[in-house]
Amino acid sequence: MPSSDDNFLRREALLFLPGAAFPSFASLKSVYEPAICTVLSALSSSVRGTTRSAILDIAVAVSDLPAPDPQLRIRSFDSLQRLLANTYRLVGVSSVKQSIDLDSPGGIDARVFFVKHHEKPIELQRLESPQIGPVVSLASLAASGFSWECVYSIDSPQGDALLLAFKEAREQISPLGKRISFQKLPATLDIEPLDLSIETGTKHFTPHYSVAVGGTFDHLHTGHKLLLTATVLALDPYVGQSPQKRRIVTIGITGDEMLVNKKYSEFLESWEERWRGVWAFLQSIVTFSSDCAQIKFERLSNPGPNGKRVIVSIGANLEFRIVQISDPFGPTITDEDITALVVSKETRSGGKSVNDEREKNGWAKLEVFEVDVLDMSEEAEGAKGDASAETFESKISSTEIRRHRMKLAKSSHSL
């Protein structure tokens, strides 16, 4: 089954971003682009010319997300997904500027999650916040057992406070753990004290215990990471009830037979490769525990639609159902218990189609959560910007990734 404990725990670097409340992508970019460029450059040089990727964990500090209040968490969905999208977008912009590959051999594999920064004692943090992401406490992050070579932070009052809290938590939890190199990155000259609080809205207020998402997920890239992380954010937090109610995330992945007419289909990953890629990423932003024994896998191959699936259980109360789908709807029209669907803004029509089908069955409609589309609209000004936008799009398009692999294959054959 998927990766061993050692492979899962190995990470090249952790980058702390200490402030969250930015009104726009431009403001986020002005504060953090120099730091992200520095880290990407350092990691890229360590893997350039190799067949592996350098794993970069990016922990964005947030506050005002008390774990026992699921309604507050769900009301924060829009703000959290927007911050998530802008952070991934900034990684993409920075990689283009430096001609650094993402999510490919010799490139950078960036994973963004949120860390709650507050003044509570470490043991209380651990009790209130189990090691389940993508929103975790500093204590859970410190106890994760992840083997980072270097931890980067911003040289600012908030960055210093965040790093100090992490060091203290790590010293309390695993004083004999692996030695880590710590490096401070210069802050921009105009940096101001940053607000860690996340705005709450009124669009979403109902907690969900069974959410779904669907896609091809070929050659997993930044856009997929955003969509998958947002799907887990739409799930009710893994705390608060006794006994706890089981949470279920259903991921529909298109079957191979539906993809034969895709462009450059000979370079498509198989369904087996795609589900493993999806799970490897989800595990990295959900499971902040060194105990991989708590993860159980079960393969099912039943007759009928959606019969082929892999069920991944984390403890007794969290389950991921990775399902091979043979139509655009998948389990959303065969599993009445699903209550929410996560889509990108460019595929919002799919949410309406699903609800139309459920209505035919007399089932309740799904609440649809929309995730921002990654784009370069603010960068694409003039010819140079257009070229940058095209390069960025090639990093978040499975079709373009397959085309690139085809070109590489042809060039290698011609040598």
Automatic annotation (TrEMBL):
Its organism's taxonomic lineage begins at:
Eukaryota, Fungi, Dikarya, Ascomycota, Pezizomycotina
Q: Which UniProt keywords apply?
A: Nucleotidyltransferase, Transferase
* Keyword Transferase annotated: yes
Q: Kindly provide the name given to this protein in its UniProt entry.
A: Phosphopantetheine adenylyltransferase
* Entry keyword Oxidoreductase: no
- List the molecular function annotations (GO) for this entry: dephospho-CoA kinase activity; pantetheine-phosphate adenylyltransferase activity
Q: Which GO terms describe its biological process?
A: coenzyme A biosynthetic process
Q: Which InterPro entries match?
A: Rossmann-like_a/b/a_fold (IPR014729)
Q: What is its EC number?
A: 2.7.7.3
